[in-house]
Amino acid sequence: MDVRSLRYFIVAYESGSISAAARRCHVAQPSISTALGQLEERLGTPLFERHRRGITATEEGHRLYPLARQVSENLDAIGRLFRTDSPPTPVRLGLMRSLGASRMTTLLKEYIGRGDNLALTLVNPEERCDARIIGEQDLAQGERFQPIWHDSYRLALPSGHSLAMQTSIALGDLDGLPFIWRHPCAAMEQLAVALNAAELRCQIRARLRTIEYTLGLVAAGVGASLVPAWPEILARHDVQCRPIDGLAIHQTIGVAYPARNPPPALAPLLTLGKEAWGQAGSDEGSQSRPDATASSRLRPSR
Questions:
Q1: Which of 12, 115, 236, 237 is deepest in the core (most CB within 10 A)?
Q2: What distance in Å separates the CA atoms of residue 231 and residue 135, rounded to the nearest whole number?
Q3: pLDDT average, residue stretch 39-55
Q4: Where are the alpha helices (DSSP H) in 186-266?
Q5: What is the spatial distance between Cα 285 and Cα 278, in angstroms, rounded to a whole number?
């Protein structure tokens, strides 16, 4: 029996959808679907019921899950038992703010799992580090860039706000609107350029660094803000997110690493980045040039 299929089954069971399982495993959705189909064929029974909102485990799926977990954990234990002890490989990874706790936790867990006895130290991207997870606009000379995620941004409004009744927001609606401003934030800089060009001005009620506190103030009715359209944000009931008409604000997040002699320990992270970027491309039908040097990309004006 294919161990990978069992691992995909475990993630699909815990996630409740094929797409969520694919994101957690950093593979394309067809890979998950094919593996589950092969496992069901091997066992001669359906393990999930498919429906529009995702998947639901059948009785056989519920019976298989604890056994699959035990097999997976035993295999991991065997690998640890016979792994040759060696000094851990230190990796200093710089992280920009507001990357999204859920997806970063998954990425770092997968990186540590695929790496060879890694010892991660997470630092600010301005500090000395082996690689940085940053926005593409902050790429430095001498660095290469492997995209991971493409974030689009929406206007976040308190639930019940009059503007939340609209399906989209005109830029002029932001004139005089109480606003929570985040800095540093490349998306906010793009919004500021658009507001200045239209001679509009919102009322800054607070200036923050993190998305988490920003969302808390928006939910409390202090003001609106600009936030990435992450699934966990769009699923909130206390905040309503709407696109801004004629203003496509987005940011590409990825791994910036030395163009010359990158540390070998970064290889699993770059592979994960390629897999996640490929999954994003299959979901959105988007195309981009991955893995380009800073000198080959246009840098936005500041």
A1: 12
A2: 19
A3: 90
A4: 186-197, 211-219, 231-234
A5: 10
269: left (phi over 0), alpha (psi -120 to 50) or beta: alpha
CB 294 within 8 A of CB 139: yes
**Spatial separation of the C-alpha atoms in residues 201 and 45, rounded to whole Å:** 61
> Which one-letter amino acid corresponds to residue 188?
M
Q: Using the predicted structure, report yes or no on whether residue 238 has a pLDDT greater than 90.
A: yes
Residue type at position 31: S
Q: Which amino acid is at 204?
A: I
| Residue listed under structure tokens 């939910």 | 219
C-alpha–C-alpha distance, residues 226 and 211, integer Å = 9
Q: Region 81-98: what's the mean pLDDT? A: 83
- C-beta of residue 265 within 8 angstroms of C-beta of residue 129: no
Structural domains of the chain, ranges and CATH numbers in brackets? 3-81 (1.10.10.10), 89-149+254-296 (3.40.190.10), 150-250 (3.40.190.290)
Indicate the range of 178-187, 229-238, 281-290 predicted with least confidence.
Answer: 281-290
Quickly list DSSP for 58-124: -HHHHHHHHHHHHHHHHHHHHHHHTPPP---EEEEEEE-S---HHHHHHHHHHHHHHSSSEEEEEE-
DSSP H or E stretch at residue 165 = none
Q: Give pLDDT tens digits for 100-133.
A: 888 898 899 989 988 888 999 999 999 999 999 9
Q: Which residue is it, tokens 């808390």?
A: 216
